[in-house]
Amino acid sequence: MNPYISMIIPAYNEEVKIKDTLESIKGIKEINEIIVVDDGSTDKTTKIASEVNSEKIVVLKLDKNRGKGYALNYGLKIAMKNADIIGFLDADLGRSANDVKKLINPILNDEADVVIAKFPPAKKKGGLGFVKGLAKDSVFEMTGVELDATLSGQRLFKKEVLEKFKEIPFGYGVEVGMTIDILKNGYKIKEVLVNMTHNETGRDLKGFIHRGKQYYHIKRVLKQKKKEWR
Fold this sequence. Notes:
Layout: E1 5-11, H1 18-25, E2 31-38, H2 45-50, E3 57-61, H3 68-82, E4 85-88, H4 101-108, E5 114-118, H5 130-143, E6 155-158, H6 159-162, H7 174-184, E7 189-193, H8 205-228
Parallel strand pairs: 1-2, 1-4, 2-3, 5-7
Antiparallel strand pairs: 4-6, 5-6
Helix pairs in contact: 5-7, 5-8, 7-8
């Protein structure tokens, strides 16, 4: 019997990309369910997602914007009922979301408990690499495992891994915190190179503010994990 795979896609004001994202993954035969959680969008995200023709797709709309962590947890409550494998995908991947199929086989073949998508280098310069470096160094410091894609939100999990978490942590440090906990619990993580692309953070003021928040959240998560795992 083939495992049941659910994909959770949190979306906030993604009317431009959500259709292409869904169209590109609905035909992947291994995926049984696609849960879109509209995180209180003010545009037509829910309408456009609902119009994509597929019995696999479930579209949920939150009453207001609550953040990516909340949206993921909301989707997980549904996915955990049936799924053996659960994936997280960003809504802005567009047609490149189809590359998620590269993450599926390593889990099906029991090569890993968690598979993370490793993106190609960014096309435009965003931060100065200090956030990515902090994330990588933090995971290595805590676990002795060297990973390059610690900030990637495109991930597939065996259900048993997610059952270790009462809920997905909130904030920009979520991926780093989860990665540390997963490795500390003895699970294996595999990174897979993909050709996915999404909205990149630039070198403008908004971009630097975003990087600053990420840096602060990761430092806070690292401090918390040091206490938990000492």
